[in-house]
Design goal:
Blueprint (H helix, E strand, L loop, with lengths): L27 H31 L4 H24 L6 H20 L3 H23 L5 H27 L1 H32 L4 H19 L3 H9 L5
Helix pairs in contact: 1-2, 1-3, 1-4, 1-6, 2-5, 3-4, 3-6, 4-5, 4-6, 4-7, 5-7, 6-7
Length: about 240
């Protein structure tokens, strides 16, 4: 399946000229928060790998492309693992697995029910938009080693986002109602995940409101590309306000 053109990724300059200093990457407080943030990105990339392989079982014509996307995610997981090692941090993988459990359960249920649109909305739209927002927010305040890796990863994530956009755009009339329902069930989970990680993100100098804004922008841009109307998108975005 052809994919949309990947946009140029704006690499944010480090705040070297800013009055605000970077975090102390060696402090115990930073390392404690980083142990959970690092685990989340490692687990997220691992689950993305597994999810694209699962989608390939539902879309056999795209199996080769989906395996390629999956392998990219594994490369990302290895890169983020090295980021933790560089700082001498052991990722809290137990926390990360629990963090993703609600979305993981919904995704696996959708696979069992052959709901391709729901699977793609969860993985290729929601999770990828979540990752893009998080990585863009993190890059300006990251340590030099992690910055280089994250800049490479975020470019790849647009490829994954675009795969979902292309398939869902081509099949929108058949899956519109399924997507609306999947949005109602899963967008509130993303908001809860952002709330859950806000305190640790703040230690890394990642602003919660910036994360939420960047996520919603990326998600709504994808919905526009797929073909939803402004009215539909406004209603879909409102699901993020559900606590």
């Amino acid at each position: 399946m052809p994919t949309l053109d990947v946009p140029e990724v704006a690499v944010v300059d480090s705040p070297g000229g800013s009055s605000e200093a970077l975090p102390d990457f060696t402090s115990d407080t930073y390392k404690d928060a980083y142990s959970r943030i690092n685990a989340i990105v490692i687990e997220g990339e691992q689950e993305a790998h597994d999810n694209y392989i699962a989608i390939g079982t539902l879309l056999p014509d795209d199996e080769v492309e989906l395996k390629r996307l999956a392998m990219m995610e594994m490369k990302h997981a290895k890169g983020f693992t090295s980021c933790g090692k560089n700082l001498g941090v052991t990722p809290d993988m137990v926390f990360a697995k629990e963090f993703f459990a609600p979305l993981r359960d919904n995704f696996q249920n959708a696979v069992e029910e052959d709901k391709v649109a729901t699977c793609l909305l969860i993985q290729a739209l929601l999770i990828e938009a979540f990752a893009i927002a998080a990585y863009h927010t993190y890059i300006p305040v990251s340590d030099p080693f992690a910055r280089k890796i994250t800049e490479g990863v975020v470019k790849d994530e647009y490829i994954h986002l675009n795969y979902g956009e292309v398939w869902l755009k081509a099949n929108l009339e058949d899956c519109r109602e399924e997507m609306l329902e999947a949005n109602r069930e899963n967008l509130p989970l993303i908001r809860k995940m952002l709330d859950q990680v806000a305190a640790d993100a703040a230690v890394l100098q990642m602003d919660k409101e910036d994360l939420i804004e960047d996520f919603l922008i990326a998600y709504q841009e994808s919905l526009t590309e797929i073909g939803f109307t402004t009215r539909e998108i406004t209603r879909m975005a409102a699901a993020a306000l559900v606590a």
